[in-house]
Design a protein that fits this description.
Structural class: alpha+beta
CATH topology: Thiol Ester Dehydrase, Chain A
Shape: elongated
Radius of gyration: 16 Å
Number of helices: 2
Distance between the termini: 6 Å
Number of domains: 1
Strand order of the largest sheet: 1-4-5-6-3
Length: about 130
């Protein structure tokens, strides 16, 4: 499991100062990018020229407790499943008191950038995800 820590910023909140539901996915994506870098599989600097893309094809969430402006939050990223062409990640948002604020799931599919068709996950990426 990978843990990414951050602080809730103004741009994450709505007019009431509470994290807007869609911003949980934004924060999860930052944690995802950080996890990829930590397992030696960072996103390429020029995504437009990358031969492989990893779009999200399914996302879901459950919200349990509010996060507010200035709150410290730990985002636990867990690799739940790695298949030949896809992988599933789970995210758990926990505040500084240990209260679970949200759980998210994303499913990513490997897509050949030149054809737009699904393809096998590179062995190096699949292995790194399995070991994460």
């Amino acid at each position: 499991m990978h843990v990414f820590e951050t602080t809730v910023r103004l741009q994450h909140t709505d007019a009431a100062g509470v994290v807007f539901f869609a911003r949980f996915f934004e924060l999860a994506h930052v944690a995802y990018e950080d996890m990829l870098a930590c397992i030696g599989q960072p996103l390429p600097r020029d995504l437009g020229k990358a031969p492989l893309i990893l779009p999200i094809v399914h996302a879901e969430s459950d919200y349990r407790s509010s996060l507010r402006l200035g709150d410290r939050v730990s985002i636990e990223v867990d690799v739940r499943e790695v298949k030949s062409r896809s992988f599933t990640l789970g995210y758990r948002f926990v505040d500084a008191d240990g209260t679970e604020a949200a759980r998210l799931t994303t499913v990513h599919v490997a897509v050949d950038a030149s054809t737009g068709r699904s393809t096998r996950l590179p062995d190096e990426l699949a292995g790194a995800l399995r070991e994460a």
